[in-house]
Amino acid sequence: MLAERLPAVLPRLTREASLEVTAVHSVAGLLPPGKPLLDVAPYCAPHHSATMQSLVGGGPGIARPGAVSLAHRGVLFLDEAPEFHSQTLDALRQPLESGHVVIARSAGVVRFPARFLMVLAANPCPCGRFSQRDSLCDCPPSAIRRYQARLSGPLLDRVDLRVEVDPVTRAQLTEPGARGESTATVADRVGAARERAAVRLAGTPWRTNSEVPGRELRSRFHAAAGAMDEAERNLERGVLTARGIDRVLRVAWTVADLVGHDRPDAADVCLALQLRTGVPRGVPMALGALT
After folding, report:
1. Domain endpoint, select from 153, 174, 195
2. pLDDT in tens, 204-220
3. Which DSSP state fits 79?
4. Closest Cα to residue 52, out of 87, 100, 82?
5. Angle of helix 183-200 relative to helix 242-259, nearest 10 degrees?
6. Over the stretch 217-244, which tens digit does the pLDDT of each residue have?
């Protein structure tokens, strides 16, 4: 449900992005009737039985775009992620880094854009009832380890936010009245954050925080003095990889844009670390500002 609402939270596509998305869907023969130009972020949710070819593109003769390209400038949602074939999931690593897919066939080489927001959903164990607090799971530990190991380390290293979703209680399920914020309210906050990022990145080849290369992020867009100390200690202890610390800084910039800071402070970086590692770090005020 949350993943399906992400396209409505994302800003409408710019003219350039709209042309890119429309071209990909036109090549795939999936352009909706009476819709010559797509201006809403696409949403693609392939079944876990999808082949590598359907996910990254291919086919006999001239290659066709796969799900990663159909989700360009939008959302790729993989429900029951551990049920996908491990080689299929690992094929996502290259487009997640480069933002495009190159497919070589005897008929020629095709390059499709593939800059998407990847969302993975997974149960904690094969039966889905494992919990750190109150477990009804009867899966043996070896089965839980094998199940969780289906998501490889290199793929998870490219996942910036790792959130454990608590089970819904009876009181929450039956409570009358609206709860939480509307999609429109969240979309307004996201739009304001995108505008701050656009002002900061004006005159560069990038438009969003996710597009800025790690080296440029470290050399040109600095956090507040001392803000990265905890992240750097995590790097020294092996909790974070070199790619991981770049992604923590990138998420910290997004947090700063959401709360209106000129640059990330220690609380913004700690929240980014908490979202990446799942380890609470005492940042309830920052969390409250975002949720």
Report:
1. 174
2. 999 999 999 989 998 99
3. T
4. 87
5. 110
6. 989 999 999 999 999 999 999 999 999 9
